[in-house]
Amino acid sequence: MSARFAELGWAETPLGEISLRRRVEPTTKTEVYEVKLGDEYLMSSMFTVAEEELARLGLAALDRPLDDRPLDVVVGGLGLGYTARAVLEDPRVRSLVVVEYLAAVIDWHRAGLLPDAAPVVADPRATLLPGDFFGLLRDGTGFDPDHPARRFHAILVDIDHSPANLLHPAHADLYTVAGLRRIQDRLHPGGVFALWSDDPPEDGFQAALAEVFATGTAHVVTFANPLTGGRSSNTVYVATTPGE
Predict the structure, then answer these.
(1) Confidence class of residue 14 from pLDDT cuts 50, 70 and 90?
(2) Nearest-5° angle of CA 64, CA 126, CA 133?
């Protein structure tokens, strides 16, 4: 086993200092990778079930058989790569654009500092796009620099802690009716928007989803928490646009 603690990467960002750490978790005696923004934990390889379910629940809502038309997907937030890898495990996926605001996170993946980065970095279907997901959506630039008006079959987002607990105040408009309509405009008919949240389902956000999308469901995803000896949960919201 490697040293009990190592800082693998560090960078100054517009949001503050960000660091990538590897340590041995004393409770489980396993190696854990973590990203911190200042003193705040952003991501941990200890808890990845809901991040992977964001991809699986989102793509399952498309309800397309394996021999149907291929899928083009956007993931907002690269993080430790668990959502992106789960997307690429779906054989229907033709292309994946991962939008990541913190360039250091992309650099860490490309440098191989994370043990499971290769499936995303090396997959020819995947593009790692440095940029502000919220800004690209807001100003009309879109998620394909060569085709600003391009639409996608699924947009999966894991950036803020929840619709009410934001990393930056500028993100707030995504979770309004106006912001959700911008998401809808980037989706094909029958497309899916899915969102990870660290909080229980929120009535206000569900009401906004219901006003914009044809369907909306809040899935509570539970998983074992070795730190507490019990179970914890996240929420994955899944909404679909009207079909063709």
Answers:
(1) confident
(2) 90
Q: Can you count the helices (H) and strands (E) in the chain? A: 7, 11
- Using CA atoms, how far apart are residues 178 and 156, in angstroms rounded to an integer? 18
Amino acid at 203: D
Q: How far is residue 35's CA from residue 20's CA, in Å, rounded to a whole number?
A: 5
- Domains of the chain as residue ranges with CATH: 47-240 (3.40.50.150)
Interatomic CA distance for residues 175 and 164, integer angstroms:
9
Cα 3 to the chain's mean position, in Å?
30
Nearest to 198 by CA among 176, 224, 221: 221
Token reading at 49: 């079930």
Q: Is the pLDDT of residue 76 over 90?
A: yes
Q: Whole-model pTM? A: 0.94
Query: Are 175 and 133 within 8 A, CB to CB?
Result: no
pLDDT classification of 68: cutoffs 50, 70, 90? low
CA distance 116 to 194: 23
